Amino acid sequence: MMHSRHTKILSKIFLTTALLAVTVAVRADEALQTFLEQTLTTARDKNDLPAVAALIQIDGKTAAIAADGFRAHSHMEPVTIDDRWHIGSNTKALTATMIARLVEQGIMRFEDTLADSFPAFAKNMDPAYRNITITQLLSHTAGLPPLTDDNELPQFEDLIESVPSIRAQRIAVARSYLAMPPTSATGSFKYSNLGYIIAGAIAEARTGKTWEDLIKEQIFTPLGIKNAGFAAPGSSGKLDQPRGHKKTWWGKLVPLDPADIQSDNPQALGPAGTINISLKDWILFAEDQLNGVHGRGKLLKSETYRKLHSPVNGHYALGWGALYDPELLLLTHTGSNGYWLTDARIMPKHNIIFLIAMNSAGDTAEKSMKDIRKLLMERLKPFE
């Protein structure tokens, strides 16, 4: 009887402690939620942004999520936490991960060279490119032109204009640019969208599938990502999703209809940056990257995540900026197609992730992003 009574007392103590812990956690989440909402509202009002959204995950749970503003400037349709955002170059981490899955499946190798990958025109390549590897394409160390400036786009668009299919366009890009001399020293870091387009073209050649279908098959489906797509989100003539915004020369923000050819970069650029996705679905990918650091990712083996997250030159790994000191402290990337701006931060040591998205870009949006990011880092204190 004594043993049974003591058991009941202990159970009550444990229950009380558990309830107290839950109450404290709820209060902490409520405080963080309020902080996030106020931070986004302040940033948007201060800088006249159309909209901004963010999600904070701590220990595998959404600690706060908020969206503030409107889907289009001068319209009253509010953004929601379920809306999609064009994530620009944050696409690169998904492309690198998709290729890593093909490597694990024996379809590709990180050590494959461009000559191996494109035997049909290997002889026409500049000799400096023939031994460039998949790893170098994904780490921006291949010596390729950046294709990050508007001045570079006309040549790119002229090249693909008369090519009918998207796969053929990406092959045409590889064939043409690899015949030219490198624009930087191979092996040195020089950010290049072309590297990712060419890596995507190799994946397409090896599988017979488009990069878009490979992303769906290798990333979206296994992670349960459903609220995502490619190019500018939403339907033409409707405000069913946020619109990207172009700034006129006199400073006015103009929302772009997703059917407008100017609303995104050419589709051929896809592997470097055309995914749109909701924050709730994007976090599924980011969480898997964090879990991969701890040996429990769904998509890849632990050693393959380490390959993705290990810097090749400076602080750039494969699709991620990475900071070690000496363990992996931070995975990060920003993305923009000129009309949207996004930022991802993964902090494995403290199991913290935050994602930020805006449907405008340019200097004002970038300053706002830095301000929000600084406030979140100060509030979360992940490196203390």
Automatic annotation (TrEMBL):
Residues 1-28 form the signal peptide. Keywords: Membrane, Signal. Residues 37-369 form the Beta-lactamase-related domain. It comes from the Bacteria. It is found in: Membrane. The keyword Membrane applies. This is Beta-lactamase family protein. It comes from Microbulbifer variabilis. It holds the Pfam family Beta-lactamase.
